[in-house]
Amino acid sequence: MKKLKTETSDWAASNSQNITRLRYWIVAWIAASALAAFGPGFLWNYNTSLTIAGVLLTLGIGFGMIFANKTYLHGMDELHQKIFLDAGALTLGVGLVCGLSYEMLEDIKLIPFEPEISHLVMLMCLTFLAGLINGQRKYQ
Fold this sequence. Notes:
The protein is an all-alpha fold. The protein has 2 domains: about 80 residues; about 60 residues.
């Protein structure tokens, strides 16, 4: 019984560490993205080399965030992995289908404006959140 309690507390500590690590990567990526987006206009007057460095920094930190997310996913138990992967699969499908259709609307002149990637990102975030909530409710 003592061994089971130790394994459970080890898993909880590892999971907590994975969540904290992922949180730091997400915050770093958001900060790097803001720097790359607003730095050229406000900090370095569109200096090409600094702008490229900002974008490369954002990409590097973004890939670090992806790997931290993968580590977090592998540290979950099987049920939470299933819920996460189902929500991710739903998000990928919705993002692909709706994103391509959204882009097509402008090409065939059904909308008067150019589609923005931010609209697709918001849709994907809401889809992922809905998928997670639905999965949690389904397996309660």
